[in-house]
Amino acid sequence: MYKYRNLVEAIQDASRLKDKGIIFIQDKNTDVFVSYEQLYKRAKRVLYILQSKGLTAGRELIFQIQDNEQFIYVFWACLLGGIIPVPVSVGNNVEHKLKPLRIWNILHKPALVIDLEMFDDLQKVGNQNDLHHVFGNIKENTIYIEDIFKCDTNDLPSEEGAIFEPLQDDIAFIQYSSGSTGNPKGVTLTHNNLIANITAVAYEVEMSCKDSFISWLPLTHDMGMIGAHLTPLLNHMNQCIMATQLFIRMPTLWLKKATEYKVSVLLSPNFGYQYYLSHFSPVLGENLDLSACRLVFNGAEPISYELCNEFLDTMEQYGLKRESMFTVYGMAEASVAVAFPKAGEVFKTVFIDRRNAGMGDTVLEVNPDNRNAIGFVEEGHAVDFCMLRVCDAWDIPVDDRVIGEIQIRGANVTSGYYNNPDANEKLFTKDGWVKTGDLGFLRDGRLVVTGRIKDIIFVNGQNFYPHDIERVLEGLEEIQTGRVVATSISDSRTKTESIVIFVLFKKSSSAFL
Fold it and tell me: First-to-last CA distance in the chain?
């Protein structure tokens, strides 16, 4: 059914290619090309080090690695040795920094890979939060980056590790979300899950080895790792991986590099396009050429049709085609992709009456200029090897154009959260479908996602989506895009909710009022 049985076979096949690989964009003037042949060789040498440190197949390895090139070598070393990678984003606040410690207690027999400076910082944060008792065990099972890469990523031993041949249903890696609140839930992803989804993605958009990718997303993110790294590797394409912090510092470098390398596929959540536009000016657009770009993936968070149009309007003069905007739906529980529109079509916007936008409502389509209109993008049909349905509160499928919870199942869908039976009990329906927690409806078989169930605000008998409120407020001249958050507070006495708006406003209070 698939080209490969597991990811080990995939990297071994790709290693035949000396002219295809990864361009690591490390700084404005520093790009490093690593062929898939070099990646395979270096990963085997890193595996030798991991195995010499006592790591064996089935052990979990928590990643706290900032450098993308180092991250990729260690990731593939784990896959080649049957070690289970557990990528965790590096923290920039206390809650984020505590996350790997919380994950440590969930895993069976974990180890940690981290640099010396970050380990000292992690230990300090742990001690300040009464977690010093766990550090004895952690320190004994920590591998320092400095012990793997002595001077640089080329400074590796000549010895190679022993390769483990995984079965299709063996765990490939565990995907934790980037959030810091609540108890961490790790999505278990097998080799079969990943290969099924990557195969479907490539088929849906007719990918070929002539395509090339660029992404600034963290490798701890499903779109960054699976969408922007594994997908091009398995399909023998070139890929550009831009450091996330570099994108934050210099967002316009993103499309300059896309121009330089004639990239055909961009990937980003809605935020990335907004952030890019907020720093762009025509002067910075000199020499941009996006005519090679045929797909602009937009997913992973609520998609703004206004922003899609603004990005296309701005970039059209630099050769970007309107049909390139590719509005998609996915999640870590599905590996990465759930629903895609048809490639090569201009994205579609559906306007419905916001007064009929709650669970169980039959949507009423209206004109865009209707005062009650709220717009959503179509996100297409289920990709191959994945099924989706829309259900009511009792998990019974609803009719076309009725809003309900989106549920999924298929070869790409996880078997559950790692070592978390309580969360798994809530994840699945009685007939085995994953409950996504997202609301939406089918429109002639094409999915329209409207929001998160838990985010809906219920006031005076009406449902409000926070992102709808935020978009309305962002339409005001005084409020910048991305500087407003809508939420609610509950009154336990009256059993009612009230809408609360947080605005980042840097002018005077009199100007705000």
Answer: 62
Count CB atoms within 10 A of the CB of residue 171: 18
Give the CA angle between residues 310, 312, 317 to the nearest 5°: 115
Distance CA 453, CA 439 (A): 6
Q: Where are the beta strands (DSSP E) in 315-456?
A: 325-327, 329-330, 337-340, 349-353, 373-377, 381-382, 386-391, 404-410, 434-443, 446-452
* 274-315 tens-digit pLDDT: 999 999 998 888 899 999 999 999 998 889 999 999 999 999
What count of other Cβ atoms lies within 10 Å of the Cβ of residue 401? 18
Kindly list the structural domains of the chain, giving each domain's residue range(s) and its CATH number in brackets, ordered by start.
7-16+34-205 (3.40.50.12780), 351-455 (2.30.38.10), 466-512 (no CATH)
What are phi and psi for residue 90, nearest 5 degrees? -75, 130
The conformational region for residue 256 under phi > 0 = left, psi -120 to 50 = alpha, else beta, is: alpha
User: Residue 387: is its pLDDT beyond 70?
Assistant: yes
Per the structure block, which two tokens stand in for 212?
A: 């090339």
How many whole angstroms separate alpha carbon 74 and alpha carbon 68?
Answer: 10
Q: Determine the average pLDDT of the residues in 141-156.
A: 86
Is a pLDDT exceeding 80 seen at residue 181? Answer: no
CB 77 within 8 A of CB 186: no
Contacts of 468 (CB under 8 A, 6+ apart): 354, 374, 451
What is the arithmetic mean of pLDDT over 352-356?
92
399-429 pLDDT, tens per residue? 999 999 999 999 999 999 999 999 999 999 9
Name the burial class of residue 7, with classes exposed (0-12), middle (13-18) and buried (19+) by CB atoms within 10 angstroms of its CB: buried
What's the pLDDT score for residue 494?
A: 47
CA angle 216, 438, 92 (to 5 degrees): 40
CA 284 to chain CA centroid, Å, is 28
State yes or no: pLDDT of 265 exceeds 90. yes
As a whole number, mean pLDDT of residues 239-262 equals 97
CA–CA distances in Å: residue 158 to residues 41, 48, 231: 9, 9, 29
The packing angle between helices 116-128 and 94-104, to 10°, is: 90
Q: Tell me the C-alpha to C-alpha distance, in Å, between residue 453 and each of 379, 447, 491.
A: 18, 16, 19
Partners of 144 in the β-ladder:
114
Structure tokens that stand for 411 in this block: 């070869």
Task: State the pLDDT at residue 489.
Answer: 67
Within 10 angstroms of residue 300's Cβ, the number of other Cβ atoms is 24
Better-predicted residue by pLDDT, 158 or 164: 164
Phi and psi, residue 393, nearest 5°: -65, -15
Is the backbone of residue 135 left (phi > 0), alpha (psi -120 to 50) or beta? alpha
Half-sphere exposure of 361 (CA within 13 A, CB side): 16
The confidence band for 368, taking pLDDT boundaries of 50, 70 and 90, is very high
At 430, give phi and psi (nearest 5°): -65, -30
* Contacts with 454 (C-beta within 8 Å, 6 or more apart), sequence order: 437
